[in-house]
Design a protein that fits this description.
The chain folds into 2 domains: about 220 residues, Rossmann fold, CATH 3.40.50; about 160 residues, no CATH class. About 30% of the residues lie in helices and about 15% in strands. Strand 3 and strand 4 form a beta hairpin. The chain is globular and about 75 Å long.
C-alpha cells in the first residue's frame, strides 16, 4: 500500500525547529464528509494488561488508566522505552474510532512526551476517538540538548534519523490492535519541520506504516540547510542587522515587488520576478552612520548574500531566501535577544558538530567552514543527509 502524502509549504525558513501541526490538526473536523469522531469500538482487555505486552525491542513498558476530565477523555496510556533509549507513548481512548494518529518532532527532537504542546495534540486526537502515538526519537533534550545525544551513543543518530519513528509506529499499532482485538483501519501522520522530514522518510522507507501523511514545511535537506545557515551566519555576523533595519528592508521590498502582479495587496505573487537589490533600493548610510533608516554597504552586501544563497566556485549550493521573506529573519537568522543564538544557526551548529563530523567535534566553529573546499565533510556523512 502506498501512503498518500500531502505537503504544505509554509513561508518560513526551512528547518526551523517549531511544530505547527497542533494549530492545524482536526480544524475541519465538523465539516469532514467522514464522521471520524463516531467512536464505538470498546477495549477487549484491561488497560493494565498492556504492561505485559512483549515486543522485540521493548526494554520497559507501563500502562495506566487515565480518568477523564473537561479536557481529556478517559483513556489507557501506555508508555515505555524501545531499545536503546526511545521513549514512546500510545494513548488509547475508551471509545475508539478505529484510526491511529501520530505526530513527529521539531529540530533535533528529544521532546518530553508531556510537553504542553504535545499533550494538547494528544488531547485533541483522543477527543475525536483516535489512538494517539508519539516518540522522543531516542534521547531527552533536557539532558542532551541539540544533537549532543550522539556523544553518549552513536546509535542515537540512527534512531533520530529514521528508526525511532518507524519502530514506535509499528509497536504502537500492534498495542492498539491487541487492546481492542481489532487491527487499525487507517493510520495517519501529521507534523511539521523536522516532523515533516520524518513523514517523508516514512513514506519512502516504510510506506506500510501510514495510509496518509500531512507533511508541513518539511526540513527535507538537512545537508543543504546546514550549508545555507552557515553561509547566512557568516554574512550576518560580519554585518549584523537590527529589527529596525529588517523592517526597513521589508518595507522597501514590498514597495518594489508588491505591484508586479498588477495588484497592490501586501502580497508578493512571485519574488523571482522582482529585481530587488539592497545596495540600490534601500537608502545607504553615510560614512560613519549606522542608523535605523539606512543600510551600511556591508549590511547591504550581507542581505544580497542571504538572497543569493551559498555558492562554491561561483556555483549555487542551496537556495537563498527570496525577497519578501524578511519578516521571518528575526529569531531565525537575526538574534531576537542580546546574546541569543538564532534558530537556524543553532540547528546548523549542532548538526555540524555532532551529526556531520565523525567523530563529533563539539568545539567546531561553523564560521570556519570553507564553502569552496569543505563540501566533502558533509557529502560523505550519511546521517546528515537523512
Amino acid at each position: 500500500m502506498r501512503a498518500a502524502v500531502a505537503i504544505a509549504v509554509v513561508a518560513l525558513a526551512p528547518g526551523v525547529g517549531i511544530s505547527f501541526a497542533h494549530a492545524q490538526a482536526f480544524a475541519d473536523a465538523k465539516s469532514s464528509p467522514v464522521d471520524y469522531s463516531a467512536a464505538r469500538i470498546q477495549p477487549q482487555k484491561p488497560c493494565e494488561a498492556l504492561a505485559r505486552y512483549q515486543g522485540r525491542e521493548i526494554a520497559e513498558i507501563h500502562a495506566a488508566t487515565i480518568a477523564g476530565n473537561e479536557v481529556t477523555p478517559a483513556h489507557c496510556r501506555v508508555t515505555g522505552i524501545l531499545s536503546p533509549e526511545i521513549a514512546f507513548e500510545v494513548s488509547l481512548p475508551s471509545n475508539w474510532n478505529g484510526r491511529f494518529y501520530m505526530i513527529g518532532n521539531g529540530g533535533h527532537a528529544g521532546d518530553s512526551l508531556e510537553d504542553p504542546g504535545r499533550a494538547s495534540q494528544r488531547n485533541g486526537a483522543l477527543q475525536l476517538g483516535f489512538a494517539f502515538a508519539q516518540t522522543n526519537t531516542g534521547h531527552d533534550a533536557r539532558k542532551e540538548p541539540g544533537a549532543t545525544f550522539v556523544l553518549s551513543n552513536p546509535q542515537k543518530a540512527i534512531d533520530y534519523a529514521y528508526r525511532a519513528v518507524h519502530l514506535t509506529a509499528v509497536t504502537a499499532k500492534d498495542i492498539t490492535a491487541q487492546y481492542y482485538a481489532k487491527p487499525v483501519a487507517h493510520a495517519y501522520w501529521n507534523s511539521c519541520s523536522n516532523g515533516g522530514r520524518q513523514g517523508l522518510i516514512e513514506a519512502q522507507r516504510y510506506p506500510q506504516d501510514f495510509d496518509g501523511l500531512v507533511v508541513n514545511a518539511p526540513w527535507t535537506d538537512q545537508t543543504g540547510f546546514t550549508i545555507g545557515a552557515m553561509w547566512n551566519q557568516k554574512a550576518l555576523s560580519a554585518a549584523p542587522l537590527t529589527s529596525a533595519k529588517l523592517a526597513l528592508l521589508a518595507d522597501k521590498v514590498m514597495g518594489k515587488c508588491d505591484v508586479l502582479d498588477g495588484l497592490k495587496d501586501g502580497l508578493i505573487d512571485d519574488p523571482r520576478k522582482c529585481d530587488f537589490d539592497a545596495r540600490r533600493d534601500v537608502p545607504a548610510c553615510p560614512a560613519g552612520d549606522d542608523g535605523p533608516g539606512c543600510l551600511t554597504s556591508a549590511q547591504a552586501e550581507a542581505v544580497m548574500k542571504v538572497y543569493g544563497g551559498p555558492r562554491a566556485g561561483g556555483k549555487p549550493l542551496f537556495p537563498g531566501y527570496m525577497p519578501g521573506s524578511e519578516a521571518s529573519w528575526m529569531g531565525v537568522m537575526v538574534a531576537a535577544q542580546p546574546d541569543a543564538k538564532p534558530a537556524d544557526f543553532n540547528l546548523a551548529e549542532g548538526t555540524m558538530r555532532f551529526l556531520v563530523h565523525v567523530p563529533p567535534q563539539p568545539d567546531y566553529d561553523t564560521r570556519s567552514f570553507d564553502f569552496d573546499h569543505d563540501q566533502a565533510i558533509i557529502k560523505s556523512n550519511k546521517i546528515a543527509r537523512c
